[in-house]
Design brief:
Layout lengths: L2 H6 L2 H5 L7 H15 L8 H17 L2 H14 L25 E2 H5 L4 H7 L1 H9 L9 H9 L7 E7 L1 H6 L1 E12 L15 E2 L8 E6 L2 E6 L8 E2 L12 E12 L8 E4 L15 E7 L6 E3 L2 E8 L1 H6 L1 E5 L6 E5 L8 E4 L13 E7 L7 H14 L16
Parallel strand pairs: 1-6, 2-10, 12-16
Antiparallel strand pairs: 3-8, 4-7, 5-6, 9-10, 11-12, 13-14, 15-16
Length: 402
């Protein structure tokens, strides 16, 4: 990203959020816009594709805490459109001549030429160096040129995957079809029509930045002729319109580890958008959505299951065959087990790096809604045999025992 992007582009406006919006609001706005503007939803709509790229670029910056801070600081220092950079200091700068007639280059102040000046600049040198592509200071034109035309890391990409409950617990390998910015296959990222090549910008001599004097200072700004790249394309590539990047569809195979949770964000290093000019690829973030299961629930790494039993089984005890995601197991229900009691089957829950979770089986006594005459008589006989005391709740007397 060039310095001009930091100064001139309003990423907050692109996403339609306020400058103090939190990460959740930014993410929500991006998802809505990306869904509405996605090329799959707007085939052949060039305007929607352009907006999709703008929204993706804005989210790429604002979702990264460090890059967002740099962006905010650049716009605060220089103002939108570079207005802040054009506001000189009245009266000149000490040592700059009467009335500030002698230009003073910020690169000299914050650059690395001279150990004392470097030490005095402190963090400001790193700030200005980061904004203008220098390696830890204002840097030379050659250094800025190398930064502008050198390798650039690809964008991070986010996609979503919906898994069944079993797949989330046990892990699965899934193919993901996704669209993201990638190196133009026609010009291979140069931006020039095949058979032609970009040439060094005659205005900035390949530096990507130009300098101009304003009062007591000399300021550097992105070259308007080459848009800060240091290269000029006379005959743009017809596929990417000279950008060197196109929206591409690709299918990748992703291994989802066992035990992922609903809403979890998985980072896959190097699986994002390809880098430019030989730079490394960005990362892929997969947001996982897990479907509910008709039998099982989940508490952390434990699975939960409710099993109905008869009154006789609860009173006399029994051995149940209980289904798990790893196959059936036998579960002993002790005599006198109360309805709602939970029994634990160890190691039959969610796999983990250490010990696997457990299966928590809650037994519930099933009461028949209708009884035959014989069954009703048998229940009455049993009730008489059980006798008193009956299980009851006694109301407490207010104000204490009298």
């Amino acid at each position: 990203m060039s310095t001009r992007d930091f100064i001139e582009k309003d990423y907050y406006a692109a996403l339609g959020v306020a400058q103090d919006a939190d990460a959740a609001a930014i993410k929500k706005a991006y998802r809505q816009l990306a869904r509405d503007l996605h090329p799959d939803k707007n085939p052949g709509n060039v305007e929607a594709e352009t907006r999709f790229k703008e929204v993706s670029e804005a989210y790429d910056v604002l979702s990264d805490t460090k890059r967002r801070a740099e962006y905010d600081e650049a716009r605060r220092l220089f103002g939108s459109g570079g207005a802040g950079a054009r506001a000189g200091f009245p009266g000149g700068f000490p040592g700059g001549g009467a009335g500030g007639s002698t230009p003073f280059d910020l690169g000299d102040l914050f650059g690395a030429a001279g150990g004392a000046g470097r030490a005095g600049a402190g963090g400001l040198g790193d700030l200005f160096g980061g904004l203008f592509g220098g390696g830890g200071g204002g840097g030379s034109a050659r250094a800025r040129s190398q930064a502008a035309s050198g390798p650039a890391r690809g964008q991070d990409v986010e996609t979503e995957a919906t898994l069944s409950f079993d797949e989330a617990v046990l892990g699965v390998t899934v193919p993901l079809r996704m669209q993201s910015p990638g190196t133009c296959p026609t010009c291979h990222g140069s931006g020039a029509k095949p058979g032609t090549s970009p040439h060094t910008c005659p205005v900035c001599q390949g530096a990507g930045v130009t300098s101009r004097s304003q009062g007591a200072f000399a300021f550097s700004e992105p070259c308007r002729n080459c848009r800060g790249t240091g290269q000029v394309v006379d005959d743009p590539c017809p596929t990417c319109a000279g950008n060197g990047v196109t929206t591409q569809t690709r299918t990748i195979t992703v291994r989802i580890p066992a035990g992922v949770k609903d809403g979890q964000r998985i980072r896959l290093a190097g699986k994002g958008a390809p880098g430019r000019r030989g730079g490394p690829a960005g990362d892929l973030y997969v947001v996982v959505h897990v479907s509910d299961h008709e039998l099982y629930g989940r508490k952390g790494n434990d699975l939960t299951l409710t099993v109905p039993i008869t009154y006789a089984e609860a009173a006399l005890g029994t051995t149940l065959t209980v289904p798990t995601l790893h196959g059936n197991v036998s579960l002993k229900v002790p005599a006198g087990t109360a309805s709602g009691q939970t029994l634990r089957v160890r190691g039959r829950g969610v796999p983990g790096k250490g010990r696997a979770g457990d299966l928590l089986v809650t037994v519930e006594v099933a009461v028949p809604k209708r009884l035959s005459a014989a069954a009703e008589e048998a229940v009455k006989v049993l009730d008489a045999e059980l006798g008193d005391p009956r299980p009851r709740i006694t109301a407490a007397v207010q104000g204490g025992t009298k």
